[in-house]
Amino acid sequence: MNDLIQKATPKDSEELSNLTFKSKAHWGYSKDQMEKWREDLQVSKDYIQNNEVYLLKDGSQIIGYYSYFKNSDSTVKLDNIFIDPDHMGRGLGSVLMNDFIARINKLHVSTITLDAEPHAEKFYEKFGFSTIDQLKSSIPDRYLPVMELKLND
Predict the structure, then answer these.
(1) Full-model pTM
(2) CA 66, CA 53: separation in Å to the nearest integer?
(3) What pLDDT digit, counting tens, does each position of 26-46 carry?
(4) To the nearest 10°, the Cα dihedral for 147, 82, 54, 103?
(5) What's the gap between Cα 96 and its chain centre?
(6) C-alpha torsion sign, points 27, 85, 41, 102
(7) Which neighbouring-strand residues pair with 143?
(8) Cα–Cα distance between 12 and 45 in angstroms, integer?
């Protein structure tokens, strides 16, 4: 696991929420759509306390994070992974994903699942995830790929 990645604390809530909103907006969604999602993109203090949230900093600024939770004894769900758009294209998404997978391998679970941003599906495929289903989005004719990665024991 990467020494630059650390566990988030509730005091990181506002900065993580802002990063999430900014990163999601990077994909070109309308301002109206982004406002509809604003509440869903909040990373509350309770969320940080009740889930595993790990962040990547550049100095004192949070530039990326991921979060996950166990669905069952054998399955973990990657709930979020976001990079500040100002830091995209530097391999930081891979740094976070590699840290996440290394952390999950220590839990001895067999499967990781996620609901992907459609623009990020190819990113997850690079790590061995495959699309197994799709979820209807709040945007007409838009679907979220449901993906999974089977881990070796």
Answers:
(1) 0.91
(2) 6
(3) 988 889 888 888 888 899 999
(4) 30
(5) 9
(6) positive
(7) 136
(8) 8
